[in-house]
Amino acid sequence: MNTEKKLPKIALGAWAWGTGSAGGDQVFGLNLGVKDLRPVFEEAMKNKLNLWDTAAVYGMGTSETILGEFVKSINREDIIISTKFTPQIASDSENAVEEMLEGSFKRLNTDYIDIYWIHNPADVEKWTPKVISLAKSDKIKTIGVSNHNLKELKLANSILNKEGLKVSAVQNHYSLLNRSSEKAGILEYCKENDITFYSYMVLEQGALSGNYDSKHLFPEGNDRAKSYNPIFTKLDELINKMREIASNHNATVAQIATAWAIGKDTVPILGVTKVKYVTDAAAAMNIKLSNEEIKVMENLADKAEVSTIREWEKEM
Asked: Which residues have a Cβ under 8 Å from the Cβ of 56 and sit 6 or more positions away?
């Protein structure tokens, strides 16, 4: 079941690509297409960052369509594609999962998906069994679950185990500001069961990139400005400490947040919209933080007492 392709230490996210419902314009205030993003894709592949994470729901297919344009120009075996089934946009059809997967195939110019996720745990007992035949027919190489709590993760795994399959990947919101997956024991469960944990929103959509603070807010008019601008005053101490640690490593703040996630044995998913974000990500893979640096950042993050759990998420 597991993909035989070697995973890089970092996955690259395409949530901010494209436009439309849940797309890059609405969530991030961006408007990026194939022409803008081709250099980003090429730089990533050059740096052996070949694991790309998207979803049918991102821009209602536009993110996948852009990635699919790039897939056309390379050998399919050279890329690891991760995309998602989102129950909330599924049809009432008995074959809703297969239908959404087939749509992803068309947009992504592929006939198999390396990692296919059940995006949100709308009904674990209903949706988990529906990926079994797709996995057995090799349309899906690896099964993942996203935003599932420990109880839901264990239930999904037990359903798959009965068919000789398993959950091989977990993708949850995990950052210095949201360690609920760690506190709930999900990271530990993943380690014990040979499950790769993918951490999304490691940079909190840019709030932990070092480019923003209480004096430099996100431009208004999108979801991230609404979520983070009110809490930046509580984050200044943490961000300043991260700047200090970054300076000691000759690195950026974003690289420190990324190195923290790698140091916690997770694969961070970094949204990339510019070439420099790719080179930043490649450099972050070589940063080794000390236990002391990790501890001081986690303590300051806890001290900030902010919640960055978003409307589609829950406390783990």
From this structure: 64, 83, 84, 85, 86, 89, 100, 103, 104, 107
Q: What is the rounded CA–CA span in Å between residue 57 and residue 37?
A: 19
pTM: 0.94
If one looks up domain 11-206+252-288 in CATH, what number appears? 3.20.20.100
pLDDT one-digit tens code per residue, 246-276: 999 999 999 999 999 999 999 999 999 999 9
Q: Which residues of 170-209 are buried (b: 16+ CB within 10 A; e: fewer)?
A: bbbbbbbbbbbbbebebbebbeeeebbbbbbbbbbbbbbb
Specify whether the CB–CB gap between 112 and 140 falls below 8 A: yes
Nearest CA-CA partner of 17 in 145, 111, 108: 108
Q: Which residues contact 149 (CB under 8 A, 6 or more apart)?
A: 121, 184, 186, 314, 316
